[in-house]
């Protein structure tokens, strides 16, 4: 059985370009089994065409643009169906032994720039090692972060890592996701960082969450509890935020403003006719 939610998305970014250069954007949604893009449009005020590229995962999309001097406005609009596949079991299957991981998943066990899992192994083992492997342990990680890390805008910046967040005991969604990824990797659970448009997020912004590999697929988790997971429309995925930057740029570029809107278009639809299911979003607690 499938539950289908349909959303409209708009993202408006404005930059002041002081010197010719280029922009590389990650603002277009991923096309995947659990989200269907019905229509989308990406435009800019300069009229210069975008050059679309895909990341190593072959689904994350980047759009490059040569930038001329002056004010540059970029507008992305889309209509997307978010598909939730319900399973008979209540929770995901247990953790997978490391020797049985697919080759494409194994790299998400390793430390990365913002997720220094090698520095958190003793802490993770002491705090979560006694929990039931699988969903219970990952939910335990999320619950611990939610209870012990203050969501505090301005407490961190683009250089803050998972270890920094743990030390500060404060951060924003990016930091919560980095810490969740790092702790799961420290426990031997493959984890990756995700970015998304999020229905119900106040104020609207690009939201960070994380995914873990349990059984034979990736599952969404979010320690912030700021928005319902069924309203996550994924934009990027990678080892950490360095792989999913909204905008990478050269030359003299000054950010001016950002406006994001995510609206639900129809009530959720239940589709009973699509056979076996393949995706389930577990609760965080």
Question: Describe it for me?
Answer:
- By secondary structure, the protein is α+β, with helices and mostly antiparallel strands.
- Helices cover 15% and strands 38% of the residues.
- It has 4 helices and 15 strands.
- It has helices spanning 121-128, 135-148, 162-168, 173-186; strands spanning 2-17, 21-25, 35-44, 51-54, 61-67, 70-85, 150-151, 170-171, 191-198, 206-214, 217-221, 232-238, 247-249, 253-264, 269-271.
- The strands form 4 sheets. Strands 1, 3, 6, 14 and 15 form a 5-stranded antiparallel beta sheet that branches.
- Helix 2 packs across helix 4 and helix 3 crosses helix 4 (173-186).
- It is globular and about 55 Å long.
- Residues 274-285 have low confidence and may be disordered.
Which keywords apply here?
285 residues, alpha+beta, 4-stranded antiparallel sheet, disordered C terminus
Please sum up the structure shown:
By secondary structure, the chain is of the alpha+beta class. It has helices at residues 121-128, 135-148, 162-168, 173-186; strands at residues 2-17, 21-25, 35-44, 51-54, 61-67, 70-85, 150-151, 170-171, 191-198, 206-214, 217-221, 232-238, 247-249, 253-264, 269-271. It has four helices and 15 strands.
